[in-house]
Design goal:
Elements lengths: L2 H23 L4 E2 L6 E2 L7 H12 L3 H14 L7 E3 H21 L10 H13 L13 E3 L11 E3 H5 L2 H11 L3 H15 L11 E3 L5 E3 L1 E2 L6 H14 L2 H17 L7 H4 L4 E3 L5 E3 L1 E3 L5 H7 L3 H18 L5 E3 L17 H13 L3 H17 E2 L2 E2 L1 E4 L4 E3 L5 H14 L9 E3 L5 E3 L26 E3 L19 E3 L4
Antiparallel strand pairs: 1-2, 3-4, 5-6, 6-7, 8-9, 9-10, 11-12, 13-14, 15-16, 17-18, 19-20
Helix pairs in contact: 1-2, 1-15, 1-16, 2-3, 2-4, 2-16, 4-5, 4-7, 5-7, 7-8, 9-10, 12-13, 12-14, 13-14, 14-15, 14-16
Length: about 500
């Protein structure tokens, strides 16, 4: 299939899932792709609609976007007696609302009557999430009731990613509203997590207690529970330009490259980063988490494309071996975890494939994308959407299609097949795949942007700031690979 046809197929995959959600899922959070029924998973706020907004715009669905925004402005309220996950609502709902608000503000011709309704919804949601931060440490709890705040008896344990992956969305909310409280709380939480990294390894653990600020789980990795903390320290620097974020990221990246690839486990030779004890660096589990497939993309952003290429090749080989990526598998790529054997349509490997192709122009990444896309099109497509895989060994499907399939998986396939050799101009991608504006200074907001425009996807040179050689820790874990920055595409 020619590249343009694969791009069109990726677009059709998105709209097939989106249209079926509108028909069978809305106003529920998700559509069940096999039984064609609506299902609530995130408090009943039409999360798939919110999560899909900027993908609609990116793929030319301006009419559907306008209709979706009007529906949200008229029908959605966050004044709900619902217990919700702070991290998930931040990256999916808050990120989706803010991204689309900025895009509509910067491109007013798309919806001339738009007057900030999405920002008002985002501000209300942000205010309802703030009670989660009312802990002795300032680390947010994982769960909050949208109407009542934090109920008595709520768990005080949260994950590292849950506490540290709020920087982009809450920071942007502060810039857009002029209220610094959101950004201050997110930054304080990130500083707190970074501040309790191990003095022996420089790593962070998996879960911590928000009251005592002590680690609860001592496993360190770049996988589930930790992954996007690394990502957001780098991207907060790219978005806001604050060197503090770069310093935190650089130190954690160096620690990860040094300690998460123990030679005695054979992981270093294979390029894998695994799970080790926070303080000793001893291997704790033999499994690789599929969520850590974001790492080659992160390495592409900092210019370490050789390391990224090796690791990406391993991930692609794992996909070929198992048919999809199981949630956990061994470093030898021979065994699936006995319990976590499914593939819930995750985007991380496809995201890395897109970013590496954007950074290098290497056609091998287009071929990898072809494999991923053909698998999804041939095996996961069902009557009312795309179904998750319950067990990669049997190919048995599960009647779920999470919102990130439309906000990320299909988006990155579309962008990859658009053959862009750089990244969107003046935007970065959040961990949920939302386009968020790059801001030059603390006074900037996403509402102002001069010549900023919709991201280009198929031709021309586009720019997202990236660091190549400004990270403390090279492929061998040695400190200091030099200063300075290079750019993918034009200067922002």
């Amino acid at each position: 299939m020619r590249l343009c046809l694969r791009r069109d197929e990726a677009r059709e995959m998105f709209f097939f899932g989106f249209d079926n959600y509108l028909k069978h899922g809305l106003p529920k959070d998700e559509v069940r792709p096999i039984s064609c029924r609506g299902h609530d998973s995130q408090g009943g706020i039409a999360i798939t609609l919110i999560d899909s907004l900027d993908t609609l715009l990116l793929m030319g669905g301006e009419r559907q976007l306008v209709e979706a925004v009007r529906w949200l402005e008229q029908n959605i309220s966050f004044d709900l007696d619902k217990r919700v996950h702070v991290f998930e609502l931040t990256i999916r709902a808050l990120g989706g609302l803010l991204s689309t608000h900025v895009l509509l503000t910067r491109n007013a011709a798309i919806m001339p009557e738009y007057s900030g309704g999405l920002l008002r919804l985002a501000t209300d949601l942000g205010d309802r999430l703030l009670p989660a931060f009312e802990t002795p440490s300032g680390i947010p709890l994982s769960w909050v009731n949208l109407r009542k705040g934090v109920p008595a008896g709520e768990t005080r344990v949260t994950c590292t990613a849950c506490a540290g992956t709020l920087l982009l969305e809450l920071g942007l909310l502060s810039r857009l509203t002029g209220n610094p409280v959101y950004e201050h709380k997110a930054l304080h939480a990130a500083r707190q997590v970074y501040g309790i990294r191990s003095t022996a390894t420089g790593l962070v653990g998996n879960t911590l207690n928000a009251d005592s600020l002590n680690w609860e789980r001592l496993d360190a990795s770049i996988g589930a529970g930790v992954d996007s903390f690394y990502e957001y320290l780098l991207k907060a620097y790219l978005q806001f330009g604050d060197e503090e974020y770069l310093n935190m990221f650089s130190n954690l990246y160096a620690a990860a490259m040094r300690h998460l690839r123990p030679a005695d486990a054979g992981w270093a030779a294979r390029g894998w980063l695994g799970e080790v004890h926070l303080h000793s660096g001893v291997v704790m589990q033999p499994w690789i988490s599929s969520l850590s497939a974001f790492w080659p993309g992160l390495q592409a952003l900092i210019g370490q494309t050789d390391d990224a290429a090796l690791l990406h090749g391993n991930w692609t080989a794992a996909w070929k071996t198992f048919g999809w990526l199981p949630e956990l598998f061994d470093a030898g790529v021979t065994q699936r975890h006995p319990l976590q054997r499914g593939y819930p349509l995750r985007p991380e490997l496809i995201e890395s494939t897109y970013l590496l192709h954007a950074a290098t122009g290497d056609g091998a990444y287009l071929e990898a994308g072809r494999l991923f896309q053909s698998t999804l099109a041939e095996h996961n497509r069902q009557k009312c959407g795309f179904a998750s895989v319950a067990d990669v060994a049997t190919g048995a499907l599960e009647d779920t299609m999470e919102s990130f399939f439309l906000s990320e998986t299909t988006k990155y396939l579309y962008l990859l097949n658009s053959n862009a050799t750089a990244l969107p101009d003046h935007y970065i991608f959040s961990t949920e795949g939302h386009l968020l504006p790059v801001l030059a200074s603390p006074g900037d907001s996403g509402d102002v942007g001069g010549e900023c425009r919709l991201p280009k996807t198929s031709e021309g040179r586009q720019g997202e700031r990236a660091i190549a050689g400004g990270v403390e820790g090279d492929a061998e874990g040695n400190e200091g690979v030099g200063g300075g920055r290079t750019l993918i595409g034009d200067p922002w």
